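Contributing new records

If you add data, match the layout below exactly. Sequence lines come first and carry their own label; structure lines follow with theirs. Keep one chain per record. Anything else will be rejected by the validation script.
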Amino acid sequence: MSIALPAARGGIAGGVVLALARAIGETMAVVMVCGNIAAYPSSIFDPVRPVTSTIALEMGYATASHRALLYAAGLILVLLTGALVGWLAFRQNLPNRKIRTAFQIRCLPDPTLPPAALPPVMPPSGSPGVPPRWAEPPS
């Protein structure tokens, strides 16, 4: 890690700059395409202002309460996006496998494995022919 991170620092910085430029460019393109009108549309073809564009355009002159509302709008967008991605990932894996609880994952064998692949059951410690798990303390 002490070698890989310094060697990759230039690539990481370049990636951050490209990501920021892409986000700003896409936001401004959406502003121009949608019409940049902060009003309720009466039809699907009326100009609008998306929430991301509102955040980008109004953050420069926002007061404390206005800035808090803009941050809340951004948080709502992030939460909605995360919920959508999580739902899609869950839905994609649903037909392929059975959901198992944490107890089943830790304690029960995988029902999809053949019986020969399961580890052998060890007899309890102290049984005839089984060495103890740890040595007795010297007396």
